Structure formats: structure tokens, C-alpha cells
Amino acid sequence: MRMLLWMLLVLALASPALAVDGVGEINQTCATQTGCFSGDSAGFPVTITTSGSYRLTSRLVLPNENTDGILVSTSAVSIDLNGFEIAGPVTCSGGPIVCTPASGTGSAIDRSISTIRGISVKNGVVTGVGSIGIRVGEQSEVTGVRVRWCAATGITTGNNAIIRGNTVYQNGGDGIFTGIGATVVENSVYQNLLDGIETNAGAMISNNSASFNAATGIDAGSASTVTGNTSYNSGINGIEAEGSCTVVGNTVYSNTLNGIEAQFGGNLVARNNAQDNVGFGMVLALQDAYRENLVGGNTGGTVQENGAVDMGSNSCNATTTCP
Hints:
Elements: H1 2-14, E1 24-26, H2 28-34, E2 46-48, E3 52-56, E4 60-61, E5 70-72, E6 77-80, E7 85-87, E8 91-93, E9 98-100, E10 109-111, E11 119-127, E12 134-135, E13 141-148, E14 155-156, E15 162-164, E16 167-169, E17 176-177, E18 183-185, E19 188-190, E20 197-198, E21 204-206, E22 209-211, E23 218-220, E24 225-227, E25 230-232, E26 239-241, E27 246-248, E28 251-253, E29 260-262, E30 268-270, E31 273-275, E32 280-283, E33 289-291, E34 294-296, E35 301-304, E36 309-312, E37 315-316
Parallel strand pairs: 1-3, 2-5, 3-6, 4-7, 5-10, 6-11, 7-11, 11-13, 12-14, 13-15, 13-16, 14-17, 15-18, 16-19, 17-20, 18-21, 19-22, 20-23, 21-24, 22-25, 23-26, 24-27, 25-28, 26-29, 27-30, 28-31, 29-32, 30-33, 31-34, 32-35, 33-36, 34-37
Antiparallel strand pairs: 8-9
């Protein structure tokens, strides 16, 4: 009897298991030795094949830059990093950023095919993978994650995603890249090799901080709303708006080219503060409208209108005459 009980105990400890609350647990031991749950075999990546909730219970250490940490092959999956880190071997430093190794194929969290949707990732750290840090599809959500030292983009999402409250820095591509209709809120993105935040059309981009990115701080796709952001010390423009955008209440300063560059026309640019940029404070396009902006101290000039309409109450170098 004792021998039987001992064998059952050994089997229980060796077998993948769900936590008491039904959440699938992921840790370094099960990832490398046994597989963490049904559908997953020993060795990275940990493969999620069943919809549901999962959480880390230890740090995951990836063996090289070409290995994925977690691979999701079904929709409707929630992953709580639970404060733990998924760590690869890549490090990035310098200005502009240089990553070593320079590239790889591994991600911390990835989806197996692009049609997978509804993945949620929260509350942890991603460091040093050879490709994109977190790559999720449509209707995804990434919140409260610190992502750095990825050889490519830090966070990539599909359409209609929510990216909120993340810190994304020192990555070898964009900090954040999204599909159509994304909500990008309260993130801090800095020292990335390309854009800090780049979205496709119809995005809501608000209350983010973008600084010291080697390209543009915030690059908003057409028909996007860009409000309450701060973008400074970008290698190109502080904010770019790609037509029919609403750009309101942002602060842009000390950027290498222009503070705000509104392209392709039909943009509303209002109540922004554009100071001390190397180019113009604002570069606008035909049929843009601008009002109530505070523009001053820009080396190239105040406003380059290009057929835009001054709707009034702008201040350009402390005068009401703009440009």
C-alpha cells in the first residue's frame, strides 16, 4: 500500500496540472521537463491549445534567440505573467540601439497563425528575445507589461486591440505596432530603434509618453485620434498624423525634425504645445484646420501651412500671427 501511495505521489508531481482555480500553470520546470498541461510537450515553446486562463509561476529562461517562450494556437486565451519574466539572451544598448545577437526568430509570446484572436497578456516582463517581444492578433489586449531588449518590435497586435499601461524600451524595431482600430493608452515608449508607437487607421492614441526613439515618436494612421500625448527628442518628428486625424492637446518638444507633421489633408490640429523643435513647430497639409496651438522656439519656423486654414487663437512665438 505504501509503495502504491508513493508511486501515485510521484506521478502527481511529475504530471502537468491545473491550479485549484482552474488556471493552467506555466513554469521553467514543466516547460523543460514534462510539458505544462494537456496539448503541451516538454521543451520550449510552451504550447497552449485550449482556450482559458494561464499564469506563470516562475521565470522562464529561453535557451537562445530563436526559441519562442509561449505559443498560442487557439483563440480566447488569457496569460497572466504574474510578475515574472520571460527572458532570452539578447541585449540592446547605445543610441541608436544595437542588439546582440542582432536578430533571431524567437518571441516571448506568439500566436501560431494570424487568425487567432482574443489573446490577453498582462502583468510581467519580457526581455531579450530574438524577434518580436509579444505578438498577438485581433481583439487582443496587452496591459502592464515591461518589454525591452527585443531584437525587433516590442509589442505587435492585430486589429481592434488594446495596449494599455506598458513600458516598452530599447528594442530593435518599433516600440509598439498595431493593426486597425487599436486603443493605445498610457504607455511609456523610449529609446526604440524605429518609431515609439506606430498604428494603422482608426486608432485612439492617448496619454502616452514617447521619448528618444530613433524615428518618429508617435506615427498615427489615417482617421486616428491623438490626444494628451507627450513626444520629445525623437530622431524625426514628434507626432505624424496620416490624414483625417484629430490631433488635440499634445506636447511635442526638442524633436530632431518637426513637432507635429500632419499629412494628406483633412486633419484637425488644436490646443497642442510645440516648442523648441529643430524643424517647424507644425507642418500641415491642404485642408487641415488648426486652432488654439502654442508654438514657439522652433528653429525652422512656427507653422508651415501648405494650404491649411488658421481657425484662430493660435500663438506663434508669442504673437497671434501664424505662421
